[in-house]
Specification:
Keywords: Glycoprotein, Leucine-rich repeat, Repeat, Secreted, Signal. Helices cover about 5% and strands about 50% of the residues. It is mostly beta strands. The protein folds into two domains: about 160 residues, Ribonuclease Inhibitor (Leucine-rich repeat, LRR (right-handed beta-alpha superhelix), Alpha-Beta Horseshoe); about 280 residues, Neuraminidase, CATH 2.120.10.70. It has a six-stranded mixed beta sheet, with no helix packed on it. Strands 11-38-37-36 form a four-stranded antiparallel beta sheet, with no helix packed on it. The longest helix has 21 residues. It is elongated, with a radius of gyration of 38 Å.
């Protein structure tokens, strides 16, 4: 019996509904496609576990599963990027041979921890990036033959790796440079490469102009003194061992200072302040209260236009000499006598001297005077007369602004810097100085030879272009260009070594005074 209002569903409708449900179920099942197995790339031929690829334009992104050996020859690409084979983590054998591969990424083989055999033979590789093989845990065979390796600092790591690895590596050879050409890389050692270089980088900038800089130690602290005629001070800075910078310490009023020369005698600090106008003076440092006190004036009838101050010791006595650049003045020597410095000797007048250099040559103490009006001359100390006497003239070269000396392996050299014309390097030959090198130096007013560790440098300032740092080459016994520094009209330099830092200070007449740090650079680490 049917309830009131109910109706019978026809059989054909039930059949149609079931058919629709069946079609829907079949449709849902068909939507879940079975994953396709990657095919062998068109430029490759594949077996169950290997692939051999020829003339491939790029490294294929997919291979059939189970590939453990891959060979690529005559490839159309020259570089292989990082992670190029990371999708082939089962790979055990990789042969990239007879191609024109020129560059690899240090991460090219990332992910290939199962690799046991690698061949990069017969390509055009000149170097291999550092840590290229760090991803290999079980590599047993490596073939690098048939490449044009350049055996310089960038391959030093490979030499070191080959010394330590258990991987078998057939003999490979250097194609360049000339000194290593044809040598087996296996026969090289890390010591064959001179990969430690250096760089001078700006470390600190002082917002003032200066014409002299001198460094000194006093009471276990490191100081520098700058002559600043524009601001009217001799300014002292002290090294801050915490902040690792120079900080302002004290000023001496000096309205036309051209040189501020410190000298420590019997644990007492004195400062010779040479001025163009208003006279030159000597100051003494007092601790309580901390200040400089003027103790002496320098005779203005002798020193009229000072340009440079040098201090030195002779027979346990202290002296300083002022180079006078006026037509009427005279370069003068002063001697310390326990109470102050007193006039000791006047050297030649009327020569407009610009610089004085003190040096000891084979036990004979000498002064070299540079002059705007004549070639450099040498005065030698006469111990019996306790005076300097004219000894010789160095060269016929005029317009020498400054002469500085330096020693290399117990051999004495001089550098003569000129404002017009080339600067010169001279070597002492026992009886005379012999010219061995010229350096271009138009506009040079200052030169500074200095050493950092085993390195002998020469800094040649310039008013018209970059100042140039040269490095001494033991093989040629000459200076070679090393680095250019951008400083404006440098007038003096000084090197400070403190807290494992080597700081080169440069006094600039037309720009900020600068401090450069000497940094050691390992070229093999790049």
């Amino acid at each position: 019996m049917l309830n009131a209002g109910s109706r019978r569903v026809p059989g054909w409708l039930k059949l149609l509904s079931g058919l629709c449900l069946l079609l829907c179920l079949v449709g849902e099942t068909g939507a879940k496609r079975v994953p396709k197995i990657p095919r062998c790339p068109t430029t490759c031929s594949c077996t169950k576990d290997s692939a051999f690829c020829v003339d491939t334009k790029t490294i294929p992104k997919s291979f059939p599963p189970g590939i453990i050996s891959l060979t690529m020859v005559n490839a159309a690409f020259t570089t292989i990027p990082e992670g190029a084979f990371s999708h082939l983590h089962l790979l055990q054998f990789l042969f990239i041979e007879n191609n024109d591969i020129q560059a690899l990424s240090k991460h090219t083989f990332r992910g290939l921890k199962s690799l046991t055999h690698l061949s990069l033979s017969n390509n055009n590789l000149q170097l291999l990036p550092r840590e290229l093989f760090k991803y290999f845990d079980i590599l047993t065979d490596l073939d690098l033959r048939g490449n044009s390796f350049r055996c310089d600092c960038k391959i030093k790591w490979l030499v070191d790796w080959m010394e330590k690895t258990n991987t078998s590596v057939p003999a490979i050879y250097c194609a360049s440079p000339f000194e290593f050409q044809g040598r087996r890389i296996h026969d090289l050692t890390p010591r064959d490469f001179n990969c430690i270089s250096a760089d001078f980088a700006v470390y600190e900038t002082f917002p003032f102009q200066s014409v002299s800089v001198e460094s000194y130690e006093f009471n276990d602290d490191q100081f520098v003194a700058f002559a600043q005629p524009d601001t009217g001070f001799c300014t002292l800075f002290v090294w801050d061992h915490v902040e690792m910078v120079f900080r302002r310490y004290h000023n001496i009023t000096a309205r036309s200072a051209v040189y501020c020369k410190p000298v420590v005698i019997n644990n007492t600090l004195y400062m010779v302040v040479a001025q163009l106008f208003g006279g030159s003076h000597i100051y003494k440092w007092e601790e309580d209260p901390q200040r400089f006190v003027k103790i002496q004036d320098i005779d203005t009838t002798r020193v009229r236009k000072p340009n440079f101050v040098e201090t030195f010791q002779l027979d346990d006595e202290w002296y300083f000499v002022v180079a006078d650049s006026s037509k009427a003045g005279s370069t003068s020597i002063y001697r310390w006598n326990s109470n102050g410095f007193y006039s000791h000797q006047s050297l030649h007048p009327w020569h407009r001297d610009t610089h004085v250099e003190f040096l000891d040559v084979e036990g004979k103490q000498r002064l070299i005077l540079s002059s705007a009006s004549q070639p450099p001359v040498v005065y030698q100390w006469n111990r019996s007369l306790r005076q300097f006497a004219f000894h010789s003239q160095i060269t016929e070269t005029a317009d020498v602004q400054m002469v500085k000396h330096f020693w290399v392996r117990k051999v004495l050299y001089l550098c003569l810097t000129r404002f017009i014309g080339d600067s010169k390097i001279l070597r002492w030959e026992g009886q005379r100085y012999v010219e061995i090198q010229t350096l271009p130096s138009r506009g040079s007013m200052a030169v500074y030879p200095f050493t950092v560790g085993p390195r002998q440098y020469l800094l040649l300032g310039s008013d018209f272009s970059f100042s140039r740092v040269y490095l001494w080459d033991d093989l040629t016994q000459r200076f070679q260009p090393f680095q250019e520094l951008n400083m404006r009209a440098p007038r003096a330099f000084s090197l400070v070594s403190v807290d494992n830092k080597d700081i080169l200070l440069a006094a600039s007449f037309k720009g900020n005074t600068l401090a450069y740090q000497h940094l050691i650079v390992d070229l093999s680490a790049k």
